[in-house]
Amino acid sequence: MTVRVLTGITTTGTPHLGNYVGAIRPAIAASREPGVESYFFLADYHALIKCDDPDRIERSRLEIAATWLAAGLDPERVTFYRQSDIPETTELNWLLTCVTAKGQMNRAHAYKAAVDAAVAAGEEPDGNVTMGLYCYPILMAADILLFNAHRVPVGRDQVQHIEMARDVAQRFNHLFGKGVDMFVLPQAEIEESVATLPGLDGRKMSKSYDNTVPLFEGGAKALKDAIARIVTDSKLPGEPKDPDSAHLVTIHDAFADAAARVAFHADLRAGLGWGDAKQRVVQLIEEHVGPMRERYAQLMAHPERIEDVLQAGAAKARKVATPFLAELRQAVGLRRMVAASQAKEAKVQSAKSDVPVFKQYREADGRFYFKLTAADGALLLQSQAFAEGREAGGWVKRFKTDGVAALAGAPVIVAAGVASEAVEAALSALQAHEAEQASKAAKA
Ligand code: TRP
After folding, report:
1. Which of 87, 266, 282, 330 has a CA that sits 20 to 30 A from residue 428's CA?
2. At 343, is the pLDDT very low, low, confident or very high (cuts 50, 70, 90)?
3. Over the stretch 227-264, which tens digit does the pLDDT of each residue have?
């Protein structure tokens, strides 16, 4: 089974070294794993919540897109797009808004922090809270659920949002799924192994602490200047230093292989001066970042190339999003009136004809199943249990389109006393029936 991994990057800033080590590099590495289908997007609708400076929004989108591409993201392999190029996102946002409890949004950390800050400043609690901020988690749920992502790599501060997305998905499934889950329940994925990179002062590298090392901005000189400002203890050259208590070392190690780490630690213990140590760190990072910086500069000089990549990404994403949203609209009752009457007709017809039926259902064990029954109701095929309704649904779909061909290796058993020829005949009949329905629908 392919695992869908999805993550968004809010486009308000310029990526720094900490973003690269903590998010960009691991995400690109994960996207190269076999069996993984990755969706990476620029969360520019989310950026509007935090930023009302249009030029900054525009600039940040460009910089972040160029950074990901320069860092080696392969847009052929992953789906790389801009949130605002996917109108299905805002449409799903509304469907989800209608099933989300206000009380749940009251508990969101980002909202609570804004209220706490206002209260502490003696202001109206909700005075500075836009509806965008308040409903931020719903938009995020829409991002995730639209592509039925299984895994969502995020920072710790975002875990609550993923839990909220699960809750909303569950509620939607319950209300509209009719026993078939419409949404996969996503799982937050926190990369414990990825070090949070410390900044100049040793606290987490973050723009809000003003302690960042630039990734590309300002070129090699800015990198060198920033590293020169990393705080160390005041031990002199020749004095032994403790590599485990220096955040310069943590930054070094984020770019070094095992041998280089061991050597650097040993040299510090043996008295390597901080100035020389910093020079080594600059050189190491420059080896890594230099070639990427060149690609970055080329991309920044050709925004139209980035635009093309993102447009292609949006088209790829919408191939998934558009039909799925159509299904969701059906599920909530936003249906074409003409289609509704035709559906009724089709139902009457199929009841009259001798078509076998697949039924999907959930047992008391909470797991999902499907079965095939003959037109007279006799059981022909019984599936195994599935953890996700969508898996069962996927198999049913396959049987309907592929007919007998889907049988080999399928997770089903033939019911006792039923001849395999009877099953095959039923599957062929069903496949023919489905094909006929599809061509009728296409003509309508
Ligand atoms: N809110 C996330 C952040 O600031 C960005 C984001 C938006 C996101 N939509 C998402 C992350 C969906 C993961 C999945 O970090």
Report:
1. 330
2. low
3. 999 999 999 999 999 999 999 999 999 999 999 999 99
349 and 284 fall within a common domain: no
Distance CA 250, CA 186 (A): 32
Question: In the listed set 299, 327, 356, which residue is the last one of a domain according to the structure?
Answer: 299
Given the CA of residue 46, which atom of ligand 1 is nearest to it? 7
Query: How many Cα atoms are found within 13 Å in the side-chain-facing hemisphere of 388?
Result: 15
pLDDT tens digits, 13-72: 999 999 999 889 989 999 999 999 999 999 999 999 999 999 999 999 999 999 999 999
Q: What are the structure tokens assigned to 197, written together?
A: 């990179």
Q: How far is the CA of 127 from the centre of ligand 1 (A)?
A: 24
Atom from ligand 1 closest to the CA of residue 9: 5
DSSP symbol at 229:
T
> Which residues, other chains included, contact 396 with Cβ-Cβ below 8 Å and sequence gap of 6+?
358, 360, 370
User: Considering the domain boundaries, does residue 310 fall inside one?
Assistant: no
* Co-location of 227 and 188 in the same domain: no
Question: What separation in Å is there between the alpha carbon of 10 and the centre of ligand 1?
Answer: 6
Structure tokens at 199: 């900044």
Residue whose entry in the numeric block shows the structure tokens 């508990």: 107
Q: Which residues form ligand 1's pocket by a CB distance below 6 Å?
A: 6-8, 10, 43, 46, 140, 143-144, 152, 154, 158
Q: What is the distance in A from the centroid of ligand 1 to the CA of 87?
A: 17
